[in-house]
Structure formats: structure tokens, C-alpha cells
Amino acid sequence: MNSHESRYKWVALSNTTLGMLIATINSSIVLISLPAIFNGVGLNPLQPGNVGYLLWMLMGYMLVTAVLVVTLGRLGDIYGRVRIYNLGFAIFAVTSVVLALDPFTGGAGALWLIGWRVVQAVGGAMLMANSAAIITDAFPARQRGTALGINVVAAIAGSFIGLVLGGLLAEWNWRSIFWVNVPIAAVGTVWAYRSLRDNGERRPGRIDWWGNVTFAAGLTMLLAAITYGIQPYGGHPMGWTNPWIIAGLTGGVVLLALFGLIETRVAEPMFPLHLFRIAAFTGGNVASLLGSIARGGLQFMLIIWLQGIWLPLHGYDYEATPLWAGIYLLPLTIGFLAAGPLSGALSDRFGPRRFAAGGLLLMSASFAALLLVPTDFHYGVFAALVFLNGFGGGLFSAPNTSLIMSSVPAHLRGVASGMRATFQNAGMVLSIGVFFSLMVAGLARSLPTALDAGLTAQGVPAGAAHGVSQLPPVGTLFAAFLGYNPIQELLGPQVLGALPAANAAALTDRQFFPDLISGPFHDGLVIVFWLAIVMGVLGAAASLAGPRRRAATGEPDAEEVLDELYGAQPLNPVPVTEPAHR
């Protein structure tokens, strides 16, 4: 490798890492800033009619990236990965300006943000779909794990950095969470267009339109139905008996089954299903999905734990808890940042499987230890455990990505990168529905009784106390998640105003709600963390799938499959003749 090529690979790594960082920061920066955003547009997200806005603000960006990354990775294989990647940076820069200039209030203001966040997610998906493929093209196999480790851990750490950054910016002005993207995205766009080049194998091809449509519609219906299942319906705490939810789940499964059938019949499928005959590719993606669900569930549960219980107990006002929750979760981010590049370098030397599996097992062990921690914990113990969880996640992510990307032929790296991102992003969306549902199920057993007894003890009329206790637990969770005082929101000014001042003050005090919910919350947390433990162990087993000899050398294990599919004929990639600099 000459000096120019050696310099280019680090340029490619730097730019794609910046792209992944900004794309993933924006998946969580809105998450922590939701109270400020809804106050800015003049909406109460906890009112029943506004819950839809809340859910789409939570999941819209992640849902779109999950649906589109495979298609955009395939487009990168056909038209050039750098070309699609650069366009993604440009879209991201423009939509950041449009989002910050939201001219409306109320429902129209929320719809403006949701709609343009969907467009921004298209740009984010372009970055996610092609960054790993660009790095894989630029780096030799002996350095690929290190490079992907830096890129992937920066991406995952971005989702946690966004929590702190969003909290800080939202304290100043809610529009600043979008303005902050503009200079970074503008510099990244110019830098990408001037510096990056397509040096991977590329083939002309056709777009699998029917596959794209059925995949996008099926995955959207399925993930949206799972997410909406956490809303109450017909007197039940959740909506799994809602005909629309049932129709969405059924329709999503049917469309995805039809998609699978289509992919076996078309000459140039969007989702090359034969790649799943490569053990390392299949195992790596299964592990990525399970790890992503567990990690996403951890993120949501820890935020609720901190904002709804621990921070108020330690003297923080509810309005300040979103910011401080992000700050107190910094050990999680530090763990990711510490382990990622290290595990990438070690996996280059010793093989990725043992590090990927070991990382998920360490995550599972930290979940088990968190089960033993009381709801009003000592922060030093909590910080050490979430650091270990983050370290395990970082230990897993880089080797897992290297395992997946090195297992496929060069001309399919774009679509393979998109498929990897689909599993990872779908896991984050699934975690909202899965873990909130489990938490609501745990709370539904014990929270009503605790609420009823606690409220009546403070003089709340029996009818009002019983009515509040029978409200779906998801409202209580959302209130804690958004940094609202749950009892104040649930009782409202009329009930509180009719009580003696001392009782009203006690009910809305920072101590009352955490003491009331800590027991029921821990019941739900046990269910959630046990599922995360199981997912981590199963993901570790999936990471070990496939021939060990290939993993130890870092060589791809796709050749046998390709020989069987295509015979010994050459692949005849189209040479890339674009200039090095534009």
C-alpha cells in the first residue's frame, strides 16, 4: 500500500466516523429533549390525543433508518457507496436547518418536526448503510477490525452522547438541538465530497422494487404495531387486543413473508437471502439484533429509573432530571469508548468471535448484578455496573461488525452493511415496544394498589384515588421518562387544589412518588433485566456460530457459498474509474 492509499484510509475512517456519530447522536438527542420540544410547540405530550405525536417523535427516526438502510446499501453497491454516503450528509445538513426553523405551534408544529425528522432519517440511513462498507473497502483485513471498532463504537456512543448534549441544549433553547447539527453536517458534507472516493467493487444492477415495497411496508407495520401495543385499549393496560394492532402485526408478518418469497424469485434481490447461508453473517446479525434490543431496553429503563426515582430522591427537581440522567449515565458511554477500539485491535490479532461473545456475556453479567441493586442505590456501585455494561457493549460491537463485513464478498459489502444496520436499528425500535410492555405488565400487578393506598393516606378522595390508580401505568412511565412530576400530572390542579396545603405539598414532593413506585418498578425491572440477560446469552451463542478456523485468521467464509451459487466463474466487478479527488 503506497503512502497516498495509506493516508486515504484514515481520511475515510475519520469522515465516516463523523457521519455515524452525527446520525446516531440525532437518534437520542431528541429523546432527552422531548419536554423542551413539546413546551416549545405548545403541546402536552401526556394528553391522550397527543400520545401519537410522542410515539412518532420517539420512534420515527429509528423506524425509517431501520427500513431504508438495506435499500440504500444496495444502491451504494450499484451506483457507488461514496456517492450515496455524500448525498446522505447533504440531506442531513439541509433538514437540520428546516427542523430548527419550525414555523408552527400545536399539532402542526409537532407534525412538521415528525415529517422532517423522517426526511432527515433518510440522510442518516444513507450514512449508516454505507460507512462500514467504505471502511471495509479502504482498509486491509489485518486492520479492518480496528477501523470498524472506532467507527462502530463512535456510532453507538453517539446515542448516549446525544442524551447529555440534548439535555444541555434543551436547557437553553429547544431549537438549538437541531442548529447544532448544521455546522458539523456542512463541514462533513464538503469534506466528504472533496476527499472520499469509490474504490470498492461495483456492479450495474436493477432495483428490486417489489422487494423494497413489501419489506418497507411489512417492517413498518410490524414495528409500529409493536410500539403502539404499549398504549391502553378497552380497559386493558396495553393495546394487544386492539384490532388495529392485531391487523398491523398480522399484516406485517404476511408482507415480510411475501418479501421473502419475492427475494427467492428475482434475479437481483434487495436482500440477498443466500448470504444467510454464511454462518458468520447469520450469527453476527442475530447477535446484533439481540444485543441491540437489550441495549435499547437498558437505555430506556435506566432513564426512567434515574428520572422517576433516584434523582428526585436525591434532591433533583423533576424538570432537571432529563439533563442529570444523561450526566449520570456517562459511565455507560465511557465504557463503550474504552472498549471499542481496543476490542477491534485485539480481534484483528486473535479473531473476532471470542470478543463478540465475551462482550455480550459481560453485558448479561452486568444486567444480573443490576438486579441485586436496590432502587435507591449507591451511585458508585451503579456507575461501576453501567460502565461494565458499556464496556461489554463496546467489546462486542467492533468484532461483531468485522465478523459480518469480512464474511461477505466485496461487491455485496454495501447491502451487507445495510442488512447489519437494519438488524441493529430494528432492535432499537423493538426495544421500545418489548421493554415498555414488560415494564407495564410488571407495574400493572402492583402499582394500582400502591397508588390507591398512598393517595388515600394523604387525603385524596377515595373516588379520585381509585380513578388514578386504575389509569394505565404507561402514563406514569411516560411522565417519569419525560421529566414531569407524575402525581401532579395524574391528579391535576383541581384535586390538588381541594386538599389541605400540607397534603398537596406532600403528594407533589420529590419523595412521595419515588417511595410509592420503587417497589412496583423493581418488580417490572426484574422481568426486563431477565429478558436482557437471556438475549445476551443467546447473542453470545450466535456470535460463536460458524467455522472457527476462518474467524481465527480474519478471512471471509463466503467463498464456499459463492462457489456453490455461482460456480468457479469470475465475479467480473465493474472497475471504478472515478478520480481520487473531486
UniProtKB/TrEMBL annotation:
<feature type="transmembrane region" description="Helical">
    <location>
        <begin position="12"/>
        <end position="38"/>
    </location>
</feature>
<dbReference type="InterPro" id="IPR020846">
    <property type="entry name" value="MFS_dom"/>
</dbReference>
<feature type="transmembrane region" description="Helical">
    <location>
        <begin position="213"/>
        <end position="231"/>
    </location>
</feature>
<feature type="transmembrane region" description="Helical">
    <location>
        <begin position="176"/>
        <end position="193"/>
    </location>
</feature>
<feature type="transmembrane region" description="Helical">
    <location>
        <begin position="84"/>
        <end position="101"/>
    </location>
</feature>
<keyword id="KW-0812">Transmembrane</keyword>
<feature type="transmembrane region" description="Helical">
    <location>
        <begin position="113"/>
        <end position="135"/>
    </location>
</feature>
<keyword id="KW-0472">Membrane</keyword>
<protein>
    <submittedName>
        <fullName>MFS transporter</fullName>
    </submittedName>
</protein>
<feature type="domain" description="Major facilitator superfamily (MFS) profile">
    <location>
        <begin position="12"/>
        <end position="487"/>
    </location>
</feature>
<feature type="transmembrane region" description="Helical">
    <location>
        <begin position="53"/>
        <end position="72"/>
    </location>
</feature>
<feature type="transmembrane region" description="Helical">
    <location>
        <begin position="243"/>
        <end position="262"/>
    </location>
</feature>
<feature type="transmembrane region" description="Helical">
    <location>
        <begin position="274"/>
        <end position="305"/>
    </location>
</feature>
<feature type="transmembrane region" description="Helical">
    <location>
        <begin position="379"/>
        <end position="405"/>
    </location>
</feature>
<feature type="transmembrane region" description="Helical">
    <location>
        <begin position="147"/>
        <end position="170"/>
    </location>
</feature>
<feature type="transmembrane region" description="Helical">
    <location>
        <begin position="355"/>
        <end position="373"/>
    </location>
</feature>
<keyword id="KW-0813">Transport</keyword>
<dbReference type="InterPro" id="IPR036259">
    <property type="entry name" value="MFS_trans_sf"/>
</dbReference>
<feature type="transmembrane region" description="Helical">
    <location>
        <begin position="426"/>
        <end position="444"/>
    </location>
</feature>
<dbReference type="Pfam" id="PF07690">
    <property type="entry name" value="MFS_1"/>
</dbReference>
<keyword id="KW-1003">Cell membrane</keyword>
<dbReference type="InterPro" id="IPR011701">
    <property type="entry name" value="MFS"/>
</dbReference>
<feature type="transmembrane region" description="Helical">
    <location>
        <begin position="325"/>
        <end position="343"/>
    </location>
</feature>
<feature type="transmembrane region" description="Helical">
    <location>
        <begin position="524"/>
        <end position="545"/>
    </location>
</feature>
<keyword id="KW-1133">Transmembrane helix</keyword>
